[in-house]
Each structure stands twice: as C-alpha cells, then as structure tokens.
Hints:
Structural class of chain B: alpha/beta
CATH architecture of the domain at 33-223 in chain A: Orthogonal Bundle
Distance between the termini of chain B: 50 Å
Number of strands of chain B: 13
Radius of gyration of chain B: 20 Å
Number of strands of chain A: 0
Strand order of the largest sheet of chain B: 5-1-6-13-7
Strand content of chain B: 15-25%
Order of helices and strands of chain A: HHHHHHHHHHHH
CATH topology of the domain at 33-223 in chain A: MetI-like fold
CATH superfamily of the largest domain in chain B: Periplasmic binding protein-like II
CATH class of the domain at 33-223 in chain A: Mainly Alpha
Shape of chain A: flat
Number of helices of chain A: 12
CATH class of the largest domain in chain B: Alpha Beta
Shape of chain B: globular
CATH superfamily of the domain at 33-223 in chain A: MetI-like
Largest sheet of chain B: 5 strands, mixed
Distance between the termini of chain A: 54 Å
Oligomer: heterodimer
Amino acid sequence: MLVDWLPQGLKDALGPDIVFWLGYFTNGKHLGWYASVQYTLEAMVLGAAVALVLGLVAAAIRNSGPLPLRWLAAGYINVVRGVPDVLFFLFFPIAFEQGLEWILSTQVCTPATLALNTGQWPPCDAANISFTKDQYLILAGVSLGIVYGAFVANVIAGALRAVPAGQLEAARAYGMSRMQVLVRIHIRQMWVYALPGLSNVWMSIIKATSLLSLLQIMDFVTWAQRLGASNFSKAAGLVHDDWRWRYYLVLLIFYIVVTYISEKVFNVLGARVKRGMALAEQNLT
Amino acid sequence: MNKLVLVAAAFAALTFGAQAAAVKIGTEGAYPPYNFVDDNGKVGGYDIEVGNEICKRAQLECTWVVNEWDTIIPNLLAGNYDGIMADMSITDERKQTINFTDPYFPPDPSTYVSLATKKVDYTALKGLKIGAQTATIQSSYLAANLKADNTILTYDTQDQELADLNAGNIDLVFLDGSVVNEVVSGSSGKLKADGPGILIGDGVGVGMRKGDTDLTAKFNAALASMKADGTLDALIAKDFPDEKGGPFYKK
C-alpha cells in the first residue's frame, strides 16, 4: 500500500482516520479504477477521430459526389442518426465479430466439422474468433465513430453550404481547380461554421464513452459499480453498505470536468479559425 | 557462479513454461466468499483457491478472467476462457450447453434472507417480492415454483439484490446457503437467514466446454487427489467456517 511509505511524522500529523482513508483510496482496487480512465479516454479520442474522418468524407460525397455514392452517404447520415447509440453499441461489435466468423467459416469449415456442431454459433470450432480487450476497445471506438460520424457529416454538410458562394466563385475565377477550391477555400472556411456543431458532437461522444462497460470492458463505470457495491465479506476487504451513489457522483464530476475543459479548448480553436475572415456582415463573431 | 545460476534458472523457467499449458478460468469476482476482487484488486475466494490448487496439481498455468455472471456461459463457449469457477451449481439445464467436472462443493440448501424485523409465513409464500440473481438455480426455482402468487425480481449481481433488500424494496432474497452466513454476519444485525433450506442442484462444479474432455479429465484427476488427501475439506473449513456436516470428501 502506498500509505506505508509515508514518513511516520506525517502519519501522526494527519491522524489515523485520514491515513486510513488515504490508504483506502490508494489500494489496488482504487488504483485499478483510476487506471481504467485510460480506456474511456482512448475510446473518446479514437471515436472522435473516426467520426471526423467519416463525417468529412460522407459530407463531401453527399454535397458533390457521383449520384449513387451521394445516395449512400445520405442514407448513412439519415439512418445512423436515427439509431440510439446504446443499441448501435450493442449491435455493431457482435455483428462485426459474427460477420467475420461467418466469412471465416466459409473458408475453414469442412462438412465433417459442420456436422459436429449443429445449431451452434460459430458453425465450427475453427471459425471461432475471440477478441481481446484491446480489440474490443478499438471496436468500441469505431462504433462510436460510426454513430457520431453521421452527426459530424450533417454538421459539416451544413457548414459547407454556409460558405458564401461568392468566395468559391472568386476562387474559380482565379483559376483554381475543383480540388483546390474544395481544400483551400471551401473546407478551410467551413470550419468556422462547423466548430460550434462539432463541439456539440464531441460532448455527445464524451458522454457516450460511459457505455463501454456494455462491451465487457472493465472501464471506470464498471469499477465504480464494483467499488460502490456493498461488501459483507471481511476477506474481500472493507465491509461497507451500498456506496454506489458516491462513486457515481465522482463519475459525474469527472465528466463535467472533461466537458468543461473541452469547451475551453473549442473556444480557443474557434477564435483561431476565425482569424483573418470577413465575418462581420454575417453576425458570426 | 552467479551467471551460471542465472542461466540455470532461466533454463528451468523456460522448460517449466513449456511444460505448463496456459489455461484461463472465468469467475464473477462479486460473490463472496466464493469469489471476489479484494481491496488490492486481486481475485480471491474459495473458487480461486480451489482453482489454483487444481492447476498446480495438473501442472497448468492458470490465469483468472473476471466476467459478469449473466454472460459467463456464452463467453466460455466463445472461447474467452476455458473453464468457469464461480459457484456454478451443476444442473441438468446447464448440462445441455456445457460440461461439468466433478463437484468441488457439496449440494447446499438455498435459504431466504429477510430484514431482521420481518415476519414471513414460509408454508404459504404469497404476495411477496422475492429477489434472486439472474440465471442462478435460485431464480429458476422461484420462476418455476413461486411465480404465480409472488413477484419475482432478478438482479445482475448479488450485492444489488441485497441493496434492494436493505432498502426495503423487496421482502426476501433467495441465496446459496453457504453465502448466507457471511451476508448475515456482515449486516450487523440488520438481516437474518429465515425459512426452510431448499436443496437445488447437484453441487458446484467447474464449467467446461463440451469438446474439452482432456481438460475436464485433468481437472477431475486433480480434484480427486485433493479430495483424497483432505485438501478440499480443509479449504471448505477455512472459507466456510459455519458450514455443518464436514468433512465432505475425505473418506
């Protein structure tokens, strides 16, 4: 235990109660809880990165892609936006895993092994895939990215349309190619209009990371549940009653702190993308 | 000299590592005294002590995986681990999907727990809210026998049903008899064990995939030797000091 390393003088000054609680909050189980924040942060960052890329691509295609692709992008944006994130979170990793197993089973299963295993999934033992915790975490991040990519796409599609047409016309008049107009003028100016919407999506992604425990990841919501659960057994550690709301409160505070910091970061970003832009006439300052 | 020792040690470790096959065992980690995650973040309890001794005797390298109770059988079948040691009673229903080793805990009557002030007529249970953990022998028993006249509630973990009992939201909780003693003594007088004991299940076994007959045989052999030399009875006496009727296995 960490408190054992404290000098005796400091322990005396703090008193036995404080030393006891210091020890309790730094025991192995609590350290495991603190460390599990990494899964939440990883899922957040990965989810946001996937959502941003998917959203950009889908928005660009929907606004100006070839027709069948445009339908595909519009379908993705409309369908996925209408699906509850919890449901998609449950659906996608299982569907992905079993889809992979189905593809694998068409390659590795023989009639003999198929007959051995009737009515069970996977069709035969050789086609069984079991993901590690890290792979599940990646799947979780990708699921988040797919769900919120649709929101990002909607935000960005709107922002692309908000860039004044005169800007694009002027760029074309200077002789820029279609791609140059898109990258240098269109997307560059789009950020001003997209950032407020993107900051909303980012907040949603942050909050959705509390769903990680649904995928059997020992994230910090699961840890909080386990730590707060009443304990009757001396062998298992400190005997206490139901403390779950206290631990949930810590989680609430964590999320408020993270969203508060993100808001500040988005304010700075917003100020930065507005530099040198003539926005006064549109009241977008 | 030192280097020689080091090389020898490394060589020994390597050959030992090659001999011991790696086996992963799934447990719930929330069902003391059978299994729990202690304050140091390590799994412990009767299931874990028995499992580690089995692995030692069968020369297997065992690691523990903590998994929620309600998905513990599906994740065994999916190959996330190779055995379940989580106070899982041997029942005909479970035997349709998985195999069991020989029992490592004897059949144990399930018991009701109520608030200490509560009076219940156990000869005719009627109009009560009764809680049990999802997918346990207790919840199947309640669903089969008491569903008509009572409200049956199921919970993901044991602590959730006990929290609801403590809060007065339900009247009774139906638990393994071997768990009840610790629950009651840990509640400092708030809860009591009550009513008749009801025998369900054929004892506690290690859950195995149907195909893994080799591993099941290894576990059974190790269990037999632990039963014969009294190790298993000693572990039961240590972890369940109130359990009457031992020794259960030593002839």
